[in-house]
Structures are given as C-alpha cells and as structure tokens.
Write a structure and sequence with these properties.
homodimer, about 200 residues, alpha/beta, Helicase, Ruva Protein, domain 3, Dna Topoisomerase Vi A Subunit, Chain: A, domain 2, 2 domains, 6 strands, globular
C-alpha cells in the first residue's frame, strides 16, 4: 500500500525499542517532510555513531577513542571502582555528579535459567583489573533482581582474599514514591536495611 | 558527557515527534548495538525515502512515481472524489478497503486566526480538477473542527453551480466509546444527525 521507500523507512523505525506500527508510520511521515539537511544529518549520525562508537579497552564503557574520557582522566579517583551491567549506567551515574571513581561494565548478569554463566559476562577481565589496579573499594551497582543479587554475591566470592572492600548500592523505596505502590520484596528489603536516624 | 557521535545521534532522534530526551537516548543506545547491516538499512532508508517520495501530480498524495498507484489505476471509480487534508489519510481510508474512489489532498485547512486563507491550501487545483474530471460526488473528509467545518463549507460554496453532489463524512460518537467520555459538541452533533432505525 505504501510506496516501497516509505515502507522501508517504517520498517526501520519499527526496529527501535518501544516503537510500534503507528508510531513508526508517524515518524516516517515526519521524516519525509523534514528538510533534506536534517534527513542527511539524521542518516549520517546513524552511520557515524555505528562506525565510531566502540568499547573502552579498560572499562568496556562506550567511547569514540581507544580509552574513554573517564579512564584517561587524571581527576578521577582510581582507587574506587563501580561495577555496572550496562554502558548506559555510566552516564546515569555521571549525571548525579557526586561519584568520582571509575567504572567497569560487565557483559550482563549471571542467569542460570537463561544459560548465562559467570564465564559469559567477562568477570575474568574484571578480576584481573581489580588485581592489577589495586582498588580499595569495589561498588557493585547492578540492578536488584535475582540475577543481580546472584552476580553481586558471585563477584563478592571471587574477590575473597584480595585486600578490597566490596559494597552494594542500597535497595529500598525510591524518593517521593508512595509506599502503597511498592512491591513487598522491596518493602521487606527497605525494612531490613533500615538505618538509625542520627 | 556522551561521545560526540552519540550526542548527534540522540539529537537526531529528538527531532522526531513524541520523542523526548530519555527515549532518544534509549533509541541511540539501541542503534549503536545494532548490526551494521541494520544501521546501514536504517540510514539508507532515510535518505532514499527523502529522495524518492514526492507528491502525486494529480492528487497531491505521496508516491515514488509521477502519478500515484491510485490515480493511475483502472480499477478505481473516477467519479467519486474524497477530499482530505493530509496525505497520510489516504492510507487510513485504504486500510478500510471499502472506498473505491480517488483522493485529493488539500494543503491544510482554512484558518483565519492563523492567517491561512483559501488561497493557501490549493483549492484552485481542487476546483480545476473537479471541473475537468466531471466527478459525480465529492466527499469532504477533513477533520470535524472549526477549521474543518469552515473549509468544508467554503468548498461547498465554490462548487455551487457545478453539477456535483458534495457530501461530508459523519461526525458522532466513535464505535465502542462510552458516552460519558464524549464532549458536548460531539454529543450535540450526534443527536442532531440522528438516523431513523429501519
């Protein structure tokens, strides 16, 4: 029904997360009405990003250099390592602005049910790095799910014997959320991890 | 904070309708993790669609030919013309599958408040076409708003004296919608345009 080139454009947008048929059609119609300058900018930015963005050889974060800006910065505290599961998390932590350590991205979470073993998520590279760079603290900042907890405990275990403090970011009730909307696992955790008001 | 090429990709996605900062970031991260085959397909589909898609010289619908498939088809009833305000509407009507006439896209709706006069929306081309092609019926299928009604009445008026039936698609309560959610203008219209049950 649609002209062929429009059909392909709609298909392209449908590849994106959270974009269904209707949104893809809306985006495609919008694009064909854009200035050619903008469509060129759009198309080129896809190709250039795909070409240039790669993994930082130290932390696995994304960068357009060999070593990312954080790993190569002299202003970061190279004694504190934050372990995350997704390169995107780096930018979320950087937005807070108060963390000054460095990062290490592991390649997902341990999930025996999905056949993902410790070997599959690059823990060897992590352990070697911790061994070589002599971190004082390793903060595990993967998500609080069964897989996340398994992964955190596993990392804790393989770091046993190394002279490093291993911590886990807190779970609990998000700031500003009504308690009535919180699931019982989170509520239980929040209760167990309660802190004394000083 | 983001590498330059990623920043540009996020900017690109933010140009799209309904895409804010967060969605654009999500889409950009998704794209840099796609296969190169898919990113090439995506980028090329933008450029090719922009290059090839143009207005049908007869109906102003979108096409990758000089004359669109509908205007050039021998299977369509060339005596019934459906006037719409947006090329996209053609595909919505085609999805119904029961309309077999042809279309004409006008370039928006008359809106004195926004300074859009009858001259601005290509009504001359429409009138010439109706005059030359001797349609039996002109169905006005623009949206039921103040601007839509103004435009419909204006078209009705300038076709006065031509031997052509001018109709307007019905307004009323959408199928399946609870009456309690309907605004009073729509409800009034539905009441006024009531039909005898036969």
């Amino acid at each position: 029904m649609y002209p062929d080139s429009l059909k392909k454009l709609i298909e392209s947008f449908k590849m994106l997360p959270g974009v269904g048929e209707k949104s893809a059609e809306r985006m495609a119609f919008f694009v064909i009405n854009m200035d050619e300058e903008n469509t060129n900018f759009f198309a080129d930015s896809i190709k250039v990003a795909k070409e240039k963005i790669k993994k930082c050889s130290i932390c696995n974060g994304i960068t357009d250099k060999d070593i990312c800006d954080i790993c190569s910065s002299d202003l970061r505290n190279k004694k504190i390592l934050c372990v995350i599961e997704d390169p995107k998390s780096i930018f979320l932590f950087e937005k807070i602005g108060s963390f000054n350590g460095v990062y290490h991205v592991i390649d997902g979470l341990i999930s025996p049910l999905d056949g993902i073993d410790p070997d599959d998520i690059g823990l060897e590279k992590l352990v070697n790095r911790i061994h070589n760079e002599k971190f004082e603290e390793v903060i595990i900042a993967v998500k609080p799910s069964v897989e996340g907890e398994t992964t955190a405990l596993y990392i804790r275990k393989i770091l046993d014997g190394m002279n490093v403090k291993v911590t886990r970011i807190a779970s609990g009730i998000p700031i500003g959320t009504d308690i009535e909307y919180i699931d019982s696992m989170t509520l239980e955790r929040a209760l167990n991890d309660r802190k004394e008001i000083e």
